[in-house]
Amino acid sequence: MSTRIDARFAATASEGRAALVTFVMAGDPDHATALKILQALPGAGADVIELGMPFTDPMADGPAIQAAGLRALKGGETLTSTLDLVRAFRAGDDATPLILMGYYNPIYVYGVERFLADAKAAGVDGMIVVDLPPEEDEELCLPALSAGLAFVRLATPTTDDVRLPAVLRNTSGFVYYVSIAGVTGSATPDFDVVAGAVKRIKRHTPLPVAVGFGVKTAQHAAAIARSADAVVVGSALVDAVRGSLDADGRATEKTVSAVTDLVSALAAGVRSARVAA
Amino acid sequence: MTDQPKPNSFRTGPDERGRFGLYGGRFVAETLMPLILDLEREYEAARNDPAFHAEMAAYRATYIGRPSPLYFAERLTETLGGAKIYLKREELNHTGSHKVNNVLGQILLARRMGKKRVIAETGAGQHGVATATLCARFGLDCVVFMGAVDVARQAPNVFRMKMLGATVVPVQSGAKTLKDAMNEALRDWVTNVADTFYCIGTVAGPHPYPGMVRDFQSVIGDETRAQMLEAEGRLPDSLYACVGGGSNAMGLFHPFLDDPSVEIFGVEAAGHGLDKLNAASIAGGRPGVLHGNRTYLLMDKDGQIEEGHSISAGLDYPGIGPEHSWLNDIGRVTYLSATDDEAVAAFQTLSKLEGIIPALESAHALAKVIERAPALPKDHLMVLNLSGRGDKDVPQMAELLGTSL
Hints:
GO molecular function, one term (chain B): tryptophan synthase activity
Radius of gyration of chain A: 17 Å
Subunit structure (chain B): Tetramer of two alpha and two beta chains.
GO cellular component, one term (chain B): cytoplasm
Shape of chain B: globular
Number of helices of chain A: 12
Order of helices and strands of chain B: EEHHEHEHEHEHHEHEHHEHEHEEHEHHEH
Largest interface: A-B, 44 and 36 residues
Helix content of chain B: 40-55%
Oligomer: heterodimer
Strand content of chain A: 5-15%
Number of domains of chain B: 2
Organism (chain B): Methylopila jiangsuensis
Pathway (chain B): Amino-acid biosynthesis; L-tryptophan biosynthesis; L-tryptophan from chorismate: step 5/5
Number of strands of chain A: 9
Structural class of chain A: alpha/beta
Shape of chain A: globular
Largest sheet of chain A: 9 strands, parallel
Number of domains of chain A: 1
């Protein structure tokens, strides 16, 4: 399906460690700085990149990612400029998998077929679209798979064993397990419960299982990395962006390093997990 | 988009995927999917249970005060000099609007499902008040999400909800109005999946809400039909109702959809005008996906949702129920719009001619009745859904008319 995603997970598995998946918002705090952040992520230890597509009404996101999306929209980011961002990133990195993450409406309005063609051409490997459950697979999931793009599905604490096969049926690339019932960046998960959930999902699929929502520190990342194939961190990174801005909300010379310093710490946490265990 | 084949009946939707033609659906995060599937099963069971209907009928009669009268507005009719105008008096319901019809149904369902905590979004506060009222009646915890802007402009309703024991959460995200209140309610529901029932106030949201809320509101049209047959011996010629999300309109319209002689008009809020800030999703929007359903939405060219504007907080929503979108596209219902100024004028007209102070929301539909009735013959039977009373709007009207209370 997606050679970059499969190759990257094969590589981290052969190193005997979990992958670090980092989420940043396209256009946050501005388009140029977002590109610098994107370009710096792999060097800081990000194995897979999730790039947020900003949306006015992100119903599954907590305050941190809501604010990041609004910063990006205020700066004029659009789905078109987000695909430009991917193209610019790909010019210097042909190995790191890049997944777009967001909500359906901007894609629907852009036009599904046109979006898939343009995303593929820009170097996108897959997508996570929060408000498209398996019941709506005909909208985007099946066309994406036909276009050779991965469609990464969310499984949640409310997805029971009866429903899990339906959720996994057309999933590709990896499975994203949402560690808590809640919005992004809210509660910290119970790591033992998460380990049990990962085991449960792996009984149903050969795909790698990534775990996210509520992972904020290197310690959290290490705890998740003991059982999961990948750890996803998002709200903590966009919060690092926010914390680096000046009083007018503009990027400073610290913005890129605020993100990469945290990514380096998270990467060290992920890499230490199974050594320590 | 009226080239689609006409269905045999306009009353069979939604289909098993929750669609009304292109519209509707279940566009929600996976966390909520098992919950809305559970709700769909439970609602189907309740719908087929005579005991559920009997319980609802009893509370309608003794708690809400139904049936609401169908009132011949004699002076309004004489003054306009054309069509014979009837008002369906939903403003006489307990809590002052049609909203309680739906809330009663959902709260009885929540009780059947064993839920202890109820959440709701509200714009003008009418749905919030109705939800707080039924939660008080049945001893359920109630949390109402309301945009901070609406909290400020609908202070009387905020206080009513608090007196009824509800917690009102002012929503500070986005534009701080109804759409943001709905986002926040969805976020709460994603977080409190085990014990919480989300009582949506209009015919929107993911399946099964649009059809379920319509069913609970259809008592309006069912009664109107029987009352008009009683009063005039025949069906009305035209129906008018305001449309924000569109629940009072769906409730009136649905029982008449298969009667071709009945012309049906929904009236959207044109705000400052259709070429300026407005909340008219069909007139000014196009199909998109928000809050769990595909429907007409106000948005920019990149699919970012725009803020509606209407003088009436209850119509200030950038979307509309999916069944309305479908009825528009197939041409069964005609959607008109009324501006802020037209609504304010209609508000004053009804107050002075009939001694009935309408909600600003209902005044939008009334404005189109006032515009169209004079040109129609005297035997044309027109029904306006007077969906709410205007008490809540008195402070805002006083300010508009330059009076300090």
